[in-house]
Specification:
This protein has 4 helices and 5 strands; from the N terminus they run H-H-H-H-E-E-E-E-E. By secondary structure, it is α+β, with helices and mostly antiparallel strands. It is elongated and about 60 Å long.
Length: 120
């Protein structure tokens, strides 16, 4: 089972406990201060947050998650063809377009076409 990327500090703690290694020793061996690790447990740094987002998308792609269906659609604002990814938020589906960095409710999108021929 791959560890979830959402909780990196908790994963480190769990794995260190399984090996019966103290966090202080682990930090010393890694050349990282224990103080930094304590900060890391409370607040994930931006670089790690970016890594976590990438890791989540990669895991979804590897598992063939339907939450990452790639689509071609006509943008309701500009009426131009765009590429996007279907995402869910609060039980509703949206299309995220990285070109415009916007999300559009599926109901507002014109001419939706799934890029995967197996999906209708």
């Amino acid at each position: 089972m791959t560890p979830k990327p959402d909780q990196p500090a908790q994963n480190i703690l769990r794995r260190a406990n399984a090996l019966n290694i103290s966090i202080t020793k682990l930090c010393n061996d890694a050349g990282v201060s224990r103080r930094w690790f304590e900060y890391f447990k409370k607040r994930t740094p931006k670089a790690v947050e970016a890594y976590i987002k990438i890791e989540r998308v990669l895991i979804d792609m590897e598992e063939g998650s339907p939450s990452l269906m790639r689509v071609t659609f006509t943008c309701p604002n500009t009426l131009e063809k765009r590429q996007g990814v279907i995402q869910e938020h609060n039980g509703r589906q949206y299309i995220y377009c990285k070109d415009t960095n916007d999300s559009y409710p599926i109901a507002s999108v014109l001419h939706l076409r799934y890029n995967n021929p197996n999906i209708r």
